[in-house]
Design goal:
The complex is a heterodimer of chains A (201) and B (1096). Chain A has 201 residues and is mainly α. Chain A has six helices and no strands. In chain A, helix 2 packs antiparallel against helix 4 and helix 3 packs antiparallel against helix 6. The N terminus of chain A is likely disordered. Chain B is mainly beta and 1096 residues long. Helices cover 14% and strands 37% of the residues of chain B. Chain B contains 15 helices and 63 strands. In chain B, the strands form 17 sheets. In chain B, strands 47, 48, 50, 51, 53 and 54 form a six-stranded mixed β-sheet that branches. In chain B, strands 5-2-1-8-15 form a five-stranded mixed β-sheet. In chain B, strands 18-25-24-20-21 form a five-stranded mixed β-sheet, with no helix packed on it. The longest helix of chain B is centred in the C-terminal third of the chain and has 28 residues. Chain B is elongated, with a radius of gyration of 75 Å. The N terminus and C terminus of chain B are likely disordered. Classes of the chains: A mainly alpha (201), B mainly beta (1096). Chains A and B meet through helix 3 and helix 6 of A and strand 24 and strand 25 of B. Chain B: Its main location: membrane. Chain B: Belongs to the type I cytokine receptor family. Type 2 subfamily. Chain B: It is a single-pass type I membrane protein. Chain B: It holds the Pfam family LIF-R_Ig-like. Chain B: This is Leukemia inhibitory factor receptor.
Chain lengths: 201, 1096
């Protein structure tokens, strides 16, 4: 896991290579990472819910989907967009997620200081989202699509403000962020899957 | 204004007059006047001012009012005259007047309406008791709210300057909630007036968050002046002030993130503009309490401890969920086991146990502050999220020149605080670190120096240190040393009384002299002390070789504590008066030397050498003093050794030596020896080489000046075992009633103990049966002989039965147990005399019986014959059945009688004895014959009617003509054999013998001889299936009736002579040799016996 992440954390170094086999390998590799992270994201969500107390995690409990500034859920029409556009959206979302996950981790460190696995998963998730986002950017570059430059991170400030409002809101926000993380990683996996030869979309 | 001035002047007058009155008043006169006035008042009640009432709010001015007389006009003036020592009058346009407070006592008050002629004056008696003290209505200066804590803060002034003297004031404060003003709290608050206006504060924490509903506060007071004798009343309620929260557009739940005590009740509300459908805490739904507007609340009773992330309270509206988190926990427990000590007198470590977990973490976790009161310094505990029960520690830097520290540990969390204190003299609470850098240095072979480091500034104290000294195979030793503490942390001590050339393991721990705690042990340090000269010479023994020419000198390696180093070599020397021989530098592993010496007396000296020097010589004399009175004794060991004892012998001037060897080894053998002081009379010989079941030979030598004398010779076992082999035994002699058994000794190696005897078992039994059974099972049929005389090597077993198989078992035993068994089967010889007698007696009896029977039968033969064997006609006399002899004799191939078919007829047979040849066919038994016999019952004469039906012969016959003429004729064979049956057989046996049943009936049983029997057996089926040829006459063999076969009960039916056809009533093969007993009349039978008798 760590080796794969390590190889993907600095994908820009390979972006200049545009040979087709290399592109396919990169897509395949990024897709594999996304698939793995999808599984981890699901585990993170479960772990998160488990530590927030009832009624979090109960089947009928659906807290309000707090708006997170700078990050929205994958739109319904996402699948209809061209592949580069989809990947651009994926990369943008993945870039916005790490600071949000960090805010959630900090708040959870206060609420659940004796839940090291949850805290480790949150920390890993931020790192993994960053790595996957960079890998997607590398794929975009290899595809010849325009990649957006570094963007501000308003989400973090917004999340921090929301978290400061109260513990309950912070819990809900954390749940929302974990859900968004899962959704975007899953979306990225699906989008990359369409680019992988022989892989069902 | 004028009134006021006037009132003031009159008041002064009243005061001066009151003073005078109090001094000059005459009580009887006053009483009279009072009664008079009262009567006047009563008489003028109507049409006069009445209902005089006085109140005061400051005890200085009385506000008196009255009711105007009926009919009094609007512009009525009054003059109020008060007798208060003097008589003061006050005009008034109203029906009230404020007058200065009157002195205690009754005062006459006269109220006269002016310019109202219809009215009369009124007189009242007024005293302080008739005055009511009603304070002014208080005013709330300020009402504020601390919403996060749901606390109201009330501020008001007591207006203490109004009242002339100090008084207690009771304030009543009421809290009202919601728009319908539900009183939720009413409290009283006591203050004291001090003559100044004082602002008071009062706070109240609401159980319901203040955001949930509007809260109103009102206040009133009651002046409790102890000197005022009038009626005291509550003031009016102040104007209500309220606190309300201005909600923004967002729905919110209150309280937010509140920390509450476990078990308390809490109200949570939702301030919303939407309809709340439900509320729940965790999983539990709660009933809604409706507040103003659409706000709702729930009340949680006895809340349980929260999880780490708090307890969620959630309100659900139609389209959203709102919530808050409560943290139910405990206030900090009193820090337990607070202890402060130092490792190095530089830093104090205070540790404690937090006690009961608070269930609060993160920002709500308990914080600790350690405060030192003498220095005024404190340190705070850095929050950790370690496990709750883990001991906490705080480090406090020691202060110069301060030994006594008074620590207070304060624990604080949102629910409360607690503290724990400890006063320590830190020099008595030193828990040193583990000593490090332990080093050992030589002083000499028995002393070393130990040095180590103990970090810390211990210049002012002394250490008590323990040095643990471990030596291989030795008990560990602890030595205590006291050392003065130093600043540079280096310590050094000398350790003496060690052994040379010994590996020691040292380790150290220290505490202060005023003991508090031992430090942990330092790491072990191993050290080998230097060598010293061996302290003793080796233990020496000598043996003469078997030929007596050489003296073999043995010595034992020196033990480590005597060798004092590595033994490099030995020097051996033998000296006598005449000569000295020596062997030098015998290398260490060798512990034996051989010197060729004559039998002179020598003194042998052995010296061990190591790198430092030589040991003192070990000497031993070579001479052996003979001892003629020597017996070999036995001994058995106990446990691991063999005890030996001997009598004290004053002649033994040096020591005793016990040497031993394995008895199976050849001489000279020496396993080991042991020297015992000369004053000893017993010892236990122990050796790791001893093995159970092995015989050892021990020799006890006594030492005299000249040499050693063998005193005792002992064989023994460290432990006896059972023999591993059985004695080898043989049967030496066997008779009809006895067996002589002889066995051999068991070799010593296999005996494994002192032989105590043999056990001999015997019983009747064959090899295959008794072998399976154990003879030791205590069966009654097993006889046992215990042979305890171990010199006995034979045993005769008598009283046995002749020609009987006996099972013999022999086993040896020692005190260690029974050895294995060896068994044998022996058959005793036959008893010939008895056998002879057993044979002869039955034979003689049989002969006698036979003779007697014969005599009797002979004498009664006529009667017997008439009775049992009357004469019967001979069928051969029947002409019709007579055949030519030539037919049977001439043509051997003709086997059957050829007859033409004929109808059955009757033949009368007449007895013609003279014609009939002598053929004993009187016992013809056939179906036909039986039938005839049955018929003869009706005709008792000797007339026999034979029904004859020629049968059809189904056989291949050489004569075709006969074959043709055969047609369907049948031959019936009748068992002629039965005529010669020597013994009567049961009927059923006869039937069984009639093989073939209803079909073909053989004329005889062919297996007459063994050869024929075999053939018959082979062709049995074949022969019973069809016609049986009669022509194989060669196989026929006449058997003598007295042959063994004839008497064999199992033998088959035997026929004599030739088979014959019953059709012909003749033997088909007539006897050729009439002289032969085989053919003579069919052999031996009772009938023959009787029939032949007359001829005799």
């Amino acid at each position: 896991m760590s080796r794969r992440e390590g190889s993907l954390e600095d994908p820009q170094t390979d972006s200049s290579i545009s040979s087709l086999p290399h592109l396919e390998a990169k897509i395949h590799q990024t897709h594999s990472l996304a698939r793995l992270l999808t599984k981890y994201a699901e585990q993170l969500l479960q772990e998160y819910v488990q530590h927030q107390g009832d009624p979090f995690g109960l089947p009928g409990f659906s807290p309000p989907r707090l708006p997170v500034a700078g990050l929205s859920a994958p739109a319904p029409g996402h699948a209809g967009l061209p592949a580069p556009e989809r990947l651009r959206l994926d990369a943008a979302a993945l870039a916005a997620l790490p600071p949000l996950l960090d805010v959630v981790r900090r708040r959870q460190a206060e609420l659940n200081p004796r839940a090291p696995r949850l805290l480790r998963r949150l920390e890993d998730a931020a790192r993994q989202a960053r790595a996957l986002g960079a890998a997607v950017e590398a794929v975009l570059a290899a595809l010849g699509a325009e990649t957006r430059g570094p963007r501000p991170e308003p989400a973090a400030a917004a999340a921090a403000a929301a978290a400061a409002a109260g513990v309950f809101l912070a819990k809900v926000l954390g749940l929302r962020v974990c859900g968004l993380y899962r959704d975007w990683v899953s979306r990225t996996e699906a989008d990359l899957g369409q680019l992988v030869p022989g892989c069902p979309a | 204004m004028d009134f006021t001035l006037c009132l003031t002047q009159r008041s002064r007058m009243v005061d001066s007059k009151r003073m005078r009155m109090t001094s000059n008043f005459q009580w009887p006169l006053l009483t009279f006047i009072l009664l008079y006035l009262m009567s006047q008042v009563n008489s003028q009640k109507k049409g006069a001012p009445h209902d005089l009432k006085c109140i005061t709010n400051n005890l200085q001015v009385w506000d008196c009012s009255w009711k105007a007389p009926s009919g009094a006009g609007h512009g009525t003036f009054y003059e109020v005259c008060i007798e208060n020592g003097s008589y003061s009058c006050y005009p008034s346009e109203k029906t009230n007047i404020k007058i200065p407070a009157l002195s205690p006592g009754d005062h006459e008050v006269v109220i006269s309406p002016l310019r109202d002629f219809g009215s009369s004056i009124s007189k009242f008696i007024l005293s302080e008791k008739n005055v009511s003290l009603i304070p002014d209505t208080p005013e709330i200066l300020n009402l504020s709210a601390d919403f996060p804590t749901s606390t109201l803060h009330l501020k008001w002034s007591d207006r203490g300057s109004v009242l002339p003297r100090h008084s207690n004031v009771i304030w009543e404060i009421k809290i009202l909630r919601k728009k319908n003003m539900e009183i939720v709290k009413s409290v009283t608050h006591n203050t004291t007036l001090n003559g100044k206006d004082t602002v008071h504060h009062w706070s109240w924490t609401s159980d319901m968050p203040l955001e949930c509903a509007t809260h109103y506060v009102g206040i009133r007071c009651y002046v409790d002046d102890t000197h005022f004798s009038g009626h005291k009343e509550w003031s009016d309620w102040s104007q209500l002030k309220n606190i309300s929260w201005s909600p923004d557009s967002q729905t919110k739940v209150f309280p937010q993130d509140k920390v509450i005590l476990v078990g308390s009740d809490v109200i949570v509300c939702c301030v919303t503009r939407d309809n709340v459908s439900s509320a729940q805490i965790g999983l539990t739904k709660c009933p809604l309490i409706h507040l103003d507007g659409k706000n709702v609340a729930i009340k949680i009773h006895n809340i349980s401890v929260s999880a780490s992330s708090g307890t969620n309270v959630v309100f659900t509206t139609e389209d959203n969920i709102y919530g808050t988190v409560l943290f139910a926990g405990y206030p900090p427990d009193i820090p337990q086991k607070l202890n402060c000590e130092t490792y190095d007198l530089k830093e104090i470590v205070c540790s404690w146990n937090p006690g009961r977990p608070t269930a609060l973490v993160g920002p709500r976790v308990t914080s600790y502050t350690l405060f030192e009161s003498f220095s005024g310094k404190n340190v705070r505990f850095k929050r950790t999220e370690a496990s709750t029960n883990e001991s906490h520690q705080l480090f406090f830097q020691m202060l110069p020149n301060q030994e006594i520290y008074n620590f207070t540990l304060n624990a604080h969390n949102p629910l409360g605080q607690s503290e724990s204190m400890i006063l320590v003299n830190i020099t008595e609470k030193v828990y040193p670190h583990s000593p490090t850098s332990v080093k050992v240095k030589d002083v000499n072979s028995t002393a070393v120096t130990l040095s180590w480091r103990l970090p810390g500034n211990f210049a002012k104290i002394k250490f008590l240190c323990q040095i643990e000294i471990n030596k291989t195979n030795s008990i560990q030793e602890l030595r205590n040393v006291t050392i003065k503490g130093v600043e540079n942390s280096s310590y050094l001590v000398a350790v003496d009384k060690l052994n040379p050339y010994t590996i020691y393991t040292f380790r150290i721990r220290c505490s202060t002299e005023t003991f508090w705690k031992w430090s942990k042990w330092s790491n072990e340090k191993q050290y080998l002390t230097t060598e010293a000269i061996p302290s003793k010479g080796p233990d020496t023994w000598r043996e003469w070789s078997s030929d007596g020419k050489n003296l073999i000198i043995y010595w034992k390696p020196l033990p480590v504590n005597e060798a004092n180093g590595k033994i490099l070599s030995y020097n051996v020397s033998c000296s006598s008066d005449e000569e000295t021989q020596s062997l030098s530098e015998i290398p260490d592993p060798q512990h034996k030397a051989e010197l060729q010496l004559d039998k002179n007396d020598y003194i042998i000296s052995v010296v061990a050498k190591n790198s430092v020097g030589s040991s003192p010589p070990s000497k031993i004399a070579s001479m052996e003093i003979p001892n003629d009175d020597l017996k070999i004794e036995q001994a058995v060991g106990m446990g691991n050794g063999i005890p030996l004892t001997w009598n004290y012998d004053p002649n033994m001037t040096c020591d005793y030596v016990i040497k031993w060897c394995n008895s199976s080894r050849s001489e000279p053998c020496l396993m080991d020896w042991k020297k015992v002081p000369s004053n000893s009379t017993a010892t236990v010989i122990e050796s790791d080489q001893f093995r159970p079941g092995v015989r050892y030979h021990f020799f006890l030598y006594g030492c005299r000046n000249q040499g050693y004398q063998l005193l005792r010779s002992i064989i023994g076992y460290i432990e006896e075992l059972a023999p591993i082999v059985a004695p080898n035994f043989t049967v030496e002699d066997t008779s009809a009633d006895s067996i002589l058994v002889k066995w051999e000794d068991i070799p010593v190696e296999e005996l494994r103990g002192f032989l105590r005897g043999y056990l001999f078992y015997f019983e009747k039994g064959e090899r295959d049966t008794s072998k399976m059974r154990s003879l030791e099972s205590g069966r009654s049929d097993v006889k046992v002989k215990n042979i305890t005389d171990i010199s006995q090597k034979t045993l005769r077993i008598a009283d046995l039965q002749g020609k009987t198989s006996y099972h013999l078992v022999l086993r040896a035993y020692t005190d260690g147990g029974m050895g294995p068994e060896k068994s044998m089967f022996v058959v005793t010889k036959e008893n010939s005399v008895g056998l002879i007698i057993a044979i002869l007696i039955p034979v003689a009896v049989a002969i006698i019986v036979g003779v007697v029977t014969s005599i009797l039968c002979y004498r009664k033969r006529e009667w017997i014959k008439e009775t049992f064997y009357p004469d019967i006609p001979n069928p051969e006399n029947c002409k019709a059945l007579q055949f030519q002899k030539s037919v049977c004799q001439g043509n051997s191939t003709l086997k059957t009688l050829e007859m033409n078919p004929c109808t059955p007829n009757s033949v009368e047979v007449l007895e013609t004895r003279s014609i009939v040849p002598k053929i004993e066919d009187t016992e013809i038994i056939s179906p036909v014959a039986e039938h005839l016999e049955d018929s003869s019952d009706a005709e008792p004469e000797n007339h026999v009617v034979v029904s004859y039906c020629p049968p059809v012969i189904e056989e291949e016959i050489a004569n075709p003509g006969l074959d043709e003429g055969g047609g369907t004729s049948q031959v019936i064979y009748i068992d002629i054999q039965s005529m010669y049956q020597p013994q009567a057989k049961p009927e059923e046996e006869q039937e069984n013998d009639a093989v073939g049943g209803a079909g073909y009936k053989p004329q005889m049983h062919l297996p007459v001889t063994s050869t024929v029997e075999d053939l018959a057996a082979d062709d049995d089926l074949e022969k019973t299936a069809g016609y049986r040829p009669q022509a194989n006459v060669n196989t026929w063999n006449l058997v003598s009736p007295d042959s063994p076969r004839s008497t064999d009960s199992n033998s088959e039916i035997v026929s004599f002579g030739s088979p014959c056809s019953i059709n012909s009533r003749q033997f088909l093969i007539p006897p050729k040799d009439e002289d032969s007993p085989k053919s003579n009349g069919g052999g031996w039978s009772f009938t023959n016996f009787f029939q032949n008798k007359p001829n005799d």
